[in-house]
């Protein structure tokens, strides 16, 4: 065993010099490097053949202009991206994000994470991510359609069902996927499974919409089972109000949890009575029509809106961060711990800062990191790809069972590689997910030689 702290520092210094200013990418790599660099000692060939260095350098990055016209005639110029990180175990796979915060650093962090997440699902999918700094907020349907068509007019030449299969992420849902699929079909004259998250009428899969949020709660449940805890009557704090958050809230509620918060960029709502299915459905409808979560407090008596705040100071048993990266800072983590949180399952990608993760782990809080906890979404995307290839549609029951089994398998992998490394000999889920995701990709890369 070498001096790992020095090895990690040297690795990160080189990465930062090569990728200056990409703070989210540095953060994601650092989180993984802390467990992978010590692990490399167990199999020196990984180190000799620079497997981890290769995983930190995308296979290719495509950046392009996306030019489109607004309803008022104004011409807008956005930037489009696709970062194809690694296709060692299957075609590149990962979502597209449309949000003004999108830049190369954000997409490199997401694509880097995706290669491990996709490996953890056990399905043959490589890692990629794409998107644009386009802001869909406040845009008309016609504007969103023109943007999606313009975006696909360049992206289509870089993707394909056996090459790279994009999907949704923040700002990209069924509507955007529909516009992009239509444009791909028009440009290529091919009807094929080139995107996932499609509508059911044209090759989509049942359960895909629910999968990320449901999966994060199944992962929570798996962690609770091992620890002898349960959901019954427990208080659950959820952030976000999009597809992941509303379905996480729904599943937590169905399993007996009392879900008391949801949020958006304007603030959070606190409903101490707990959210019913009816209330969650109301939020889904609200968000589909571009509404703000503050309206919840006007609509449902007994609830309150807290402007410009996140829900982490609300006392809870379990927390489900389902909004975006770095939404749980170190102080937020400490507030959650002080209020007695027992488990955190990440529905969003990298929602907890590194110091927050460490605080949870030091306090013995069960901490399910994103690449394991939110892998249910891309897992069902993998099932959508299989159905498209075979030209079949699996049943709701089959897919629900597959999602549950997949999350249990991912938990098992984390258990296998993380057991004995957590507080008081417990499971270190961060280590488990990082190593569990790494090994399969690394061994495939070894098989291909130096490239
Ligand atoms: N954007 C989702 C994720 O972060 C889903 C990706 C996909 O289905 O390809 O995993």
Based on the model shown, name its key terms.
451 residues; alpha/beta; Rossmann fold; 3 domains; seven-stranded mixed β-sheet; five-stranded mixed β-sheet; binds glutamic acid
CATH fold title of the largest domain: Rossmann fold
Helix content: 40-55%
Topology as a string of helices (H) and strands (E): HHHHEEEHEHEHHEHEEHHEEHEHEHHHH
Segments where pLDDT lies below 50 for 5+ residues?
A: none
Do you know the CATH architecture of the largest domain? 3-Layer(aba) Sandwich
* Shape call: globular
Q: Which CATH class of the largest domain is shown?
A: Alpha Beta
Tally of discrete structural domains:
3
According to CATH, the homologous superfamily of the largest domain is NAD(P)-binding Rossmann-like Domain
